[in-house]
Amino acid sequence: MTDAPAQGRSVVFASLLMALMLTIWPLPEAIAPFRPDWSALFLIYWIMALPHRFNVGTAWCVGLILDVLTGSLLGQHAIALAITGVLVAMSHLRVRVFPVWQQAMTVMVLLAVNELILILVEGATGQLYDLEWRWAPIVTGMLFWPWVLFFLRSLRRRFDVS
Q1: 40: which residues sit within 8 A by CB, 6+ positions away?
Q2: Exposed site from 59, 122, 127, 146, fewest CB < 10 Å?
Q3: From CA 128, how far away is CA 144, in angstroms rounded?
């Protein structure tokens, strides 16, 4: 561990804000079910890239903000993103060395775990709906992962985020 001060936190928080904005951005009804979970994708990247700076606490806070923005049960996305963050933090050393296609498959599994937790919470509270389209954001998230990876990696390198 280094004692160097963190650089570029504002870049990370700006990217997470962008992910939250993409999450609530209105889409046409035909493609809305295919919207990837941008918050989860961006958090997976930042926790994988800088686990000593951004971790489960960051995921919990982003999840609470996401709950407020979407009007869902308070803590629903927070617990799902926190558990996903724990899984990323536990496996980040292995996943970072994977080729991009294997990372995309791993991200698909992480997004599926995230979605399963959301389904369990909604089922427990009696708010479960649209089960036939719950797989769509998982698949689109996997397909968007290479672009998210390259975009955030270029941001991290350009602004020397550490």
Answers
A1: 81, 84, 110, 111, 114, 141
A2: 127
A3: 26
The CB-side HSE value for 86 (13 A sphere, CA atoms) comes to 8
What letter represents residue 157's amino acid?
R
Question: Tokens 């797989």 map to which residue?
Answer: 135
Compute the 3-state secondary structure of the chain and give helix, strand, coil in percent, each to the nearest 5: 75, 0, 25
- Output DSSP code: residue 126: T
Alpha-carbon 61 to chain mean position: 12
Residue 126's CB is within 10 A of a number of other CB atoms, namely 6
- Residue-wise pLDDT tens digits, 105-119: 999 999 999 999 999
Do 139 and 2 form a contact (C-beta atoms < 8 A)? no
Single pTM value for the model: 0.93
CA distance 157 to 162: 9
Question: Rounded CA gap, 119 and 17, in Å?
Answer: 25
